[in-house]
Amino acid sequence: MMDEEFDRRLAAHQIDPRRYAEVERNFNSVLELLQETRYDGLLLTHPENFAWFTAGSHPHFGQQYTFPGAAIFVTSRGRVILTTDSVSPQLFEHELNGLGFQLKERLWTEDLPSLVDEITRGRAVMSDSGFSRTRGMPEQVQRLRLDHSEYTRERLQQLGLDLTSIVERLLHTVTPGMTEREVAVRLNVDLQARGLTPQRVQVYADDAQLQYPGWTAGETTILNRCVLQVIASRDGLSYAVSRSVDFAEPEAELRENRERAQHLLATAATALNSCETTLQLWNSIEKAARTLGMDEDWRRSEFAIELGYRCPERVLLPGGETDLREHSHWFWQLRLGGAIVGQTLVRTSGDRAAAILSEDWPRRPATIGDQTIEIPDVLQAGEDA
Fold it and tell me: Quick one: pLDDT band at residue 321, thresholds 50, 70, 90?
């Protein structure tokens, strides 16, 4: 009854009770960390940690390029927003209202880092940045940030559904003669209209610029095919989608490269769940690529990144070894010749990773061992998906 009454009071003040519970969860996680490490407080200055702790807000722009517009200071006595009088109204009237934060501010004409330095002086303070006298312990903070709650997982799922819908609907409208930049502009408009912020937009027309993993979009005209890869965020969380469309029959070499890249992606869907560490995962994918007869071309750039409040949270690398967390989101972007295949996969407790596949887009089955896994295929323009 007390919980129901509390939820009613939150609703009366237009406060999302689930978001409030998420902030409380994060607060308690930090308190446990402080007890374990025997520090007096934790200072959070990085945008991804601000978004994580507040369950969706961001620190806005700061006067200094090296410092954000707001920071968070957490102790056993509470959680305090350190900011300026030009930023605090928006934070406390629209973004953090009723979420239990205290405020300590300076005039916007004054130095915000000096406020942070002042409030941490004389205390044993850990931080995500090592600012001033604080001890930088970003790995400890990352461990908390990567422990996705059900609330965070649900928001990631909805973000993925919305981004997939936007990308697929746009590619259904792309026609030969459009330029890469025209497609990118349309996509940015569609993303903003749905409350998503583009983090990376890549449009590849035919074979042009495929050799550049960091390409965005240019004036190249689309003639035979188009590949669209997008990372977008909402409430601080990021998700990625990759889709392709053909306007002409692909050459035999391209079809073969696509099939091998798609098979490797299906392998990743099983390996992500069966492997316990990033090193095991790297070795598993590398072995599968050799079995498929793929040369070093497929790994000429990063091909798997973990997404979350930071983009990326981690990059899959051959060196080092860290545990793979359940519910972690990994975006795979596999390149082979003129083929680009990509999909976000979510580690689960089952036989294979989960993925968002819509009914409005073609799928391709791939057999891995005794499992048949469906992955996104290439849309053939003019045909029903």
Answer: confident
